[in-house]
Structures are given as structure tokens and as C-alpha cells.
Amino acid sequence: MTAPALRRGLDILELLIDEDEGLRVPDITQRLDLPRATAHELVNTLADRGYVTVSKESGRVTLGVKALRLGAGYERGLDLASVGRECAAVVAAQCGETVQVVVRDGSFAVFIVRIDSTHSVRLVSQVGSRLPASCTAGGKVLLSALPAAELSALIPDDAHLERMTPNSITTRQRLDADLDAIRTRGWGEEFCESNDHVTCVAAPVYDRLGDCVAAMSISIPVLRWDKADRPRYVELVRAGAAEMSRRLGGPDGAAH
After folding, report:
1. How many helices (H) and strands (E) does the chain have?
2. Biggest alpha carbon distance in the chain?
3. For residue range 36-58, what is the model confidence (pLDDT) as tens digits?
4. Check: CATH 3.40.50.2300 for 4-63?
5. What does 115-144 look like in DSSP terms, one character per residue?
6. What is the Cα 85 distance to its own chain's centre?
7. Is the pTM of this model over 0.85?
8. What CATH number has the domain spanning 74-255?
């Protein structure tokens, strides 16, 4: 079952896609076989929400800023996945470990790219899986980029954060200390906070507006982890995130 009014509104938007100079309401009425009053009501609603613009001089209806933002959002999603996959593959080839790209959905980190390790013992995860952002290096990188008010609205000061392992951060106070460190040094880490057997380093990815839209991470099983190797992993993930940022039109992630 579909909603007739919504379907008709979408019909108008789709009709305007190929009309560079727009259409007048009578044209829309005729092409879509709509009652005149219904066409006016739908156009006024779309205009009120910013999805179309109605010229006061000509009366022509054209696509508005909100429609442009929808297209940009779709394009950005494609860019993150495709560019992320290519950049993560380069980093994975250099380190031999699992490399992932995550985005934030509320207080969760969502994995949109995973390039598997070449080792037989490796991280087991799936694209599309969600973990508490406070338990992952990439998720904490994304949280660190939020304005203070937005972070507090998302995770209140008295929040009890989900514990996935004995090492998971469970208080805002501990989380704030970690996020401050990330902001200072430009990269994040976690040691067995989401998985008892895995440690991870991550770096931010920026878009053309300079917003942190994703994070790239390298995950290393504890049995292969040597603290002396951490600088090399950090360098690799920051370089990979910087290249991904560059390809998205953003600033150099490693130097942001």
C-alpha cells in the first residue's frame, strides 16, 4: 500500500528533474493528470519545505535546495563507500591487517567498508554491523569531532555506556579523557574495548566542507600486537585517511 499524496509529490519532483527552466502549475497539472487544486496544494507544500522554488515573476516551479541536498547526500554516500574501499585496500596491502571505514549513526559506529587481513587469524566483522561508538577506535574518532552540545545531547554526562568487554569505557568522564586525547594527537585507539582479542588504531576522514564524515581503522589481533609497532600503524592509517579525505575534496586528514 502506498500514500497517494506522497506518490503525487514525488511525481512532481521527478517531473522537474529534466526541466531546467521549470514548469508552471498548469503544465504539471496536465502532464500528471492532477486536479488543479491538488497540484497547487502539492507545489505549495513542496515549496514550503524547500524541495521546489516557485518564481514570483514567471510562476515556474523548479527544484529547490532541499532536493539538491538529497542528491548530494546520496552522492556522498556513494563516495564514502567506493573511495573508502579503494583507500582501505591500499592500507591493508601495506600492513596485512584488517582495515575498515566507519561512519556514525547516533551513538553507534557503522562499518561501511572492510578489507580483510591476509593472515589466517584475523578480525571477524561484517559490513553494515553496528557497535557502540564509545567501544571502537573509529567510533571515538567520530565522537571527538562533535561539538560539545551535540555530544552531550547524544551521550549525557550521567550516561552509563554499554560494556562489551572488561576494557570498555562505561562513563562519560573516561570517554571525555579519551576524546580529548584524540583531538590533541589527531588519531584514536582502543585496546580490547569491543573485542577481547583485538586492538585498533583509527584516523578521521574529512569531506569538502571540512566535516569529519568517517574514520578509517586498522585492527590487529592481540597475539600479533607489539606496542613498538604502534607508530607504524598510526602512520599508515593517518596516511590512508588523509588520502581518502583528499579524494573526497576535504583537507588532509593527517594535518587537520
Report:
1. 8, 8
2. 73
3. 999 999 999 999 999 999 998 89
4. no
5. E--SSSS-----TT-EEEGGGSHHHHHHHH
6. 14
7. no
8. 3.30.450.40
